[in-house]
Write a structure and sequence with these properties.
Blueprint lengths: L2 E7 L2 E8 L6 E5 L13 H4 L4 E5 L15 H14 L5 E6 L1 H12 L4 E7 L23 H12 L3 H5 L7 E6 L8 H10 L4 E4 L6 H4 L1 H12 L6
Parallel strand pairs: 3-4, 3-5, 5-6, 6-7, 7-8
Antiparallel strand pairs: 1-2, 2-4
Helix pairs in contact: 2-3
Length: 231
Amino acid sequence: MADQRLIEVGGIRLAFQVSGPSDAPPVLLLHALGTDAADWEVVAPVLATGRRVYALDLRGHGRSDWPGEYSLELMRDDVLGFLDAVGVDRVDVVGHSMGGVVAYLLAEESPGRVDRLVLEDVPAPYPRRPTVSVRPAGRLGFDWEMVLAVRRQLDTPDPAWLERLGGITAETLVLAGGPRSHLSQEGVAELARRIPGGRVVTIPAGHLIHRTEPAAFTAEVGRFLGLPEAR
């Protein structure tokens, strides 16, 4: 059972779940746009058999604060502050979709903090055709203003994001969702090519690999992270 906690980082409260042995090597899970730490509830217990697992609600999501100021760089900085606050110096990071962008920005900005990097169905940061954003009806578990801000960045990413991929030193596994994913799989493969030593593995489950095929996801990620039972 994961512990639900809150911690203050840079003047905002961040919610997170933590599970696994306290003395085990840490792994950080970063969710996609519009979800939260609970999105990992099926796969986190498997990873927690051999890892100290932290699953974070990024700003504007879930139980974390919705401060009204949003960018992927701010989320990256929140993650750095979070690692400092919980006393984690180096960490393996698993990021899905938007969380994968935050993860590679973290690995670009602070390569010494990330040992291994898993990017789940995340494309290389090229400009894309903007989508029309329509707010869903009813109460949301995330700040709609955050969605608008993040989608603007994803539609027109900073060119430096692409340029700095070559400076990532973390061993990197890129998981591709295959033809069932709405993302360009060529873009996902390009991300792996841009990161030194990056490799791509396709699990044909669509964009939500860890939810659609959790056993395949944990087997592949477990092997990559060196979990004993996954070898």
